[in-house]
Design brief:
Helices cover 75% and strands 0% of the residues. By secondary structure, it is mainly alpha-helical. The protein is globular and about 70 Å long.
Length: 555
């Protein structure tokens, strides 16, 4: 083994891996700490209670998956109810803020929730985020006008920021990286379920119970998660003296919040609400950059930084953050444009938009489960970022070849290739990132990786969307003349009703334009995905922490 590799492996043992001693005190499956974490609810719990223990851990994991489902399902359910909400509350001109307020609050609060969990204890902070999310859901369901709904959605998003981070950090506490692969299928399954079932559930709820139940449906699920976590989960938390000795980095939190908010607004408004070169977008970009530069300066001097910069000294952590960003960029771009292509060009039904993604999501779920099992059995993981990046590049390139004559079977195969690539990457990035830091930084590691993926999705939707819209408008102007330009002057994305009203020549021109737009968007995605492959090449296979003790340097 080279000196450089040995140094990295030693850091895995002493920094991330050396935290095994802390892991034993922070709930590790098969170790003393997990018995402590679950024994209060296990009949006859204690040293001899071996069989009930996994069941108790599964109860906690079930509650965590519910919380994860809440975070991922909400926007998809609410999106389906939007037309009904506008019809009831009015305020069409502010409709985009119903989603933007939620997204902003979620993104801006994500790193802060992670740090709070590290400072004050994971369980209490996570339960607080669930309570805030449920309060926001209840108030959103009771909103009487669009202004109230936007404000309550921001509150809901504030709680949602802690849901995903809390789930990942608690899993990081409970289950050592070597064993965590067994549970990757659960997390990938929740993601697939949310994307497939979200539109269907949202439409059913809105049609039969009314749009307010799109928010109220969160309440019973959230209460179940709260009850299970409150009763079963018992994690160590810092002593009162330790908590009082640690202060919150308020200035860093404020600067990071401003920076993230400005960046998300740039990616949300650019090319839609305002032109990319407009003064508003330029000012927001300048504010975002200035705030983030100030944040980096403050973090180097803060006693308890919101995002400790030393975590980026780990090569693997930095590379996983980059790969997570690119995965978010690609995945959410695909989720946006694939249903649009299938509906506009292939004539698929919009009501089953979630099912249209089934080839991609099914492949992602299957490969994620296999990758998890192999990682658990062998302790090796570098092959998955490499193979996943190659498959992601290939899948995007294949999708870029679709045209107006591509069959659903062919596009489904292309989607499955992309899904297989993402299945290799989605959970491995979090696993390796958490394995690369000490246990005391588990929260900020989880939140930073989650934030990277969130920002990647924002940039992916914005950049791929801008390219798609530009290409559609150009092709419509070329093929349908003045009528084509008029059809797409407000939006390059037409719904089924608008498409059906077009004359046959204009409709055919639009279908060709959409296939050209998706070609450009996916081709760009494949180029960006090459960066993930380059990053994967430099990943070092530091042995994963296991339940039996620290990894051997050089393993």
């Amino acid at each position: 083994m080279s000196a450089d590799s040995e140094k990295e492996a030693t850091r895995g043992a002493d920094g991330a891996g050396g935290a095994v001693g802390a892991a034993a005190a922070t709930a590790t499956v098969g170790d003393e700490a997990v018995r402590d974490a679950v024994r209060d609810t296990v009949p006859g719990g204690g040293e001899g209670a071996k069989e009930p223990q996994p069941r108790s851990v599964r109860v906690v994991l079930f509650a965590l998956m519910i919380a994860m489902l809440l975070a991922m399902l909400d926007n998809m359910i609410v999106g389906t109810a939007m037309p009904t909400i506008v019809g009831d509350l009015g305020g069409l001109e502010h409709l985009s803020w119903v989603v933007t307020a939620y997204t902003l609050a979620t993104a801006a609060s994500t790193p802060i929730w992670g740090k709070l969990g590290d400072l004050y204890g994971r369980k209490s902070v996570f339960m607080t985020s669930i309570v805030i999310f449920l309060i926001g859901s209840a108030l959103s369901g009771m909103a009487q006008d669009m202004g109230q709904l936007i404000g309550f959605r921001a509150l809901q998003g504030l709680g949602a920021g802690g849901l995903m981070v809390g789930v990942m950090a608690i899993i990081g506490d409970l289950i050592p990286p070597r064993e965590r692969g067994k549970y990757q299928g659960m997390m990938a399954g929740v993601m697939a379920l949310a994307m497939i079932a979200g539109p269907l559930v949202g439409g059913t709820i809105t049609d039969h119970w009314g749009w307010r139940w799109s928010f109220y449906i969160n309440l019973p699920l959230g209460v179940v998660a709260l009850a299970a976590i409150s009763v079963v989960l018992h994690l160590p938390k810092p002593s009162r003296e330790a908590r009082s000795a640690r202060s919150i980095d308020y200035l860093g939190a404020a600067l990071l919040t401003v920076g993230i908010t400005a960046i998300v607004l740039v990616t949300t408004w650019g090319g839609t609400e305002y032109a990319w070169g407009s003064a508003v977008i330029m000012e927001l970009a300048a504010i975002g950059v200035a705030a983030l530069v100030g944040f980096l300066f403050v973090e180097t001097r803060a006693a308890e930084p919101v995002m400790p910069l030393h975590i980026f000294r780990s090569r693997n952590f930095t590379l996983m953050s980059l790969i997570g960003f690119i995965t978010g960029f690609v995945m959410f771009g695909a989720v946006l444009f694939l249903p649009l292509y299938q509906q506009s060009v292939q004539g698929a039904s919009a009501t089953n938009s979630g099912l249209l993604l089934l080839p991609m999501l099914g492949a992602m779920l299957a490969v994620s489960m296999v990758a998890g099992r192999v990682t658990t059995g062998s302790g090796r993981y570098k092959v998955f970022p490499l193979v996943g990046s190659v498959l992601m590049i290939a899948g995007l390139f294949l999708l870029a070849q679709m045209d107006t004559g591509t069959s659903r079977v062919t596009s489904g195969v292309f989607m499955a290739v992309l899904g297989a690539g993402m299945g290799c990457l989605m959970q491995i990035t979090m696993l390796v990132a958490q394995n690369s830091v000490e246990m005391k930084d588990m929260g900020v590691a989880s939140s930073t990786t989650t934030l990277s993926r969130t920002l990647g999705s924002s940039f992916g939707v914005a950049i791929m969307g801008a390219l798609f819209n530009s290409r559609v408008q150009d092709v419509m102007a070329e093929r349908a003349g003045a009528l084509g330009s008029k059809v797409t002057e407000q939006s390059a994305q037409l719904d089924a009703a608008s498409l059906a009203k077009l004359p046959v020549p204009a409709r055919e021109a639009y279908q060709f334009a959409v296939s050209s737009g998706t070609h450009s968007a996916f081709l760009l995605g494949s180029v960006v995905a090459v960066l993930a492959l380059v990053a994967a090449v430099f990943v070092k296979e530091v042995p994963l922490r296991g339940a039996g003790g620290p990894p051997v340097a050089g393993e």
